[in-house]
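Quick start: what a row looks like.
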Amino acid sequence: MDAQRALLDELMGAARNLTEEEKKEYKEIKWDDKEVCPFYMVRFCPHDLFVNTRSDLGPCPRIHDQKLKESFEKSPRHDAYVPKFEAELAQFCEKLVMDLDRRVRRGRERLSQEVEPAPPPPISAEKSEQLSVLEEKIKNLLEQVETLGEAGKVDEAEALMRKVEILNVEKTTLTQQSQNDKVLMMAQEKKMALCEICGSFLVANDAAERTQSHISGKQHIGYGMVRDFITEYKEAKEKAREEERLAKEKEVEDRRKQREKEYESRKRSGSSDRDRYRDRDRDRERERYRERDRERSREWDGRSGRDGGRGADWRSRVRHRDRSRSRSPVRHGHRRSPRSPVRQY
C-alpha cells in the first residue's frame, strides 16, 4: 500500500486528492524544509533500522520521501548541505552508541560476577522412598551387628557389616545425583556471551545457524551501520583537519618565498636604478659641454663678422675640438679638467 501511494505521489503529486480550496492553502514540501528528515536525505535514518526489535525507536517524526531525496542530490546546494546534515546524524548516532555502550558495560559486569550457588533441586518421591528403605535396612543391620557382637559371633557380625557398607554406597549415589544436576545448571549459566556490536546476550558455542541468524538480524545490522558511520565520519573529519593544517603550512611557506623573491627583486631593481641614474648624469654632463660649445661658437661667429676670415678658422678648430672631445674621457664618465687650455683669439 505504501509503495502504491508513493508511486501515485510521484506521478500525480502529493496534493492529488485535495479540493481546489485546499490546494490554494497547500504548500509544496521541499527537501530543505524543517519537516523533511535530513538523516534520510544524506545517509540513513536510525528510526528505520530497528523496526520491531528491542531497540525500536518508533516512527520518525519527519518526512521520508525518495523524490525529495533525488531532488536534494541534484540540487546545486547539495555539497554545501551534506556536512551540516552529516554532523547532525553523527550527533544522533553518538547518543545511540553511548546508551548502547552503557548496556554493554552492565552486561559485561553481569557476566564477570560469580554465579551464586543455586539451591539444591528437590528430591523426587521415588528417590526419597529409596533413601528411606536404605536407611531402614542400614539401621536394622546395625542393630543385628551389635547383638551378634555381644553374643561373641564375630564372623556373622563382620558379614552384616559388609552389607551395611554396600547399602551406604547406594545411599551416597542417590544423594550425589542432585548435586550433579546443580553443577550442570551452573555450567550452563556460565556459557553465556555478550555481543559487543549490539549488546545482545548469546549462548557461547551455540549452533552456527543461530549465530548466523543473530548476525543477520535487524538489531545487529542496524548498530553495525551506526558504528561504521561514526567511525567513517570521525576519520573524514580528522583527514580534513590534517589537510587544512598542511594547506596552512604551505601558505606560510609560499608567503615566505614570495617575500624573499620580492626582496631579491628590489635589490636588482635598486642596482639597475643606480646604473640608470649614473648614465643619465653622464648624458647631462655631455649635454652641458655641448651647450657651452654652441654658445662659444655663436659668440665667435659674431666676432668673425667683425674680424674677417678668422671666424672660419675658428669654426674649423671648434669642430676639430668637438671630435676629439667625443673621444675624450668624458664619454666614460670622467669630467673634463677645468684647466684645459682654450686658445683666445
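That is the whole record. Residues 328-340 have pLDDT under 50 and may be disordered. DSSP finds ten helices and two strands in the chain.
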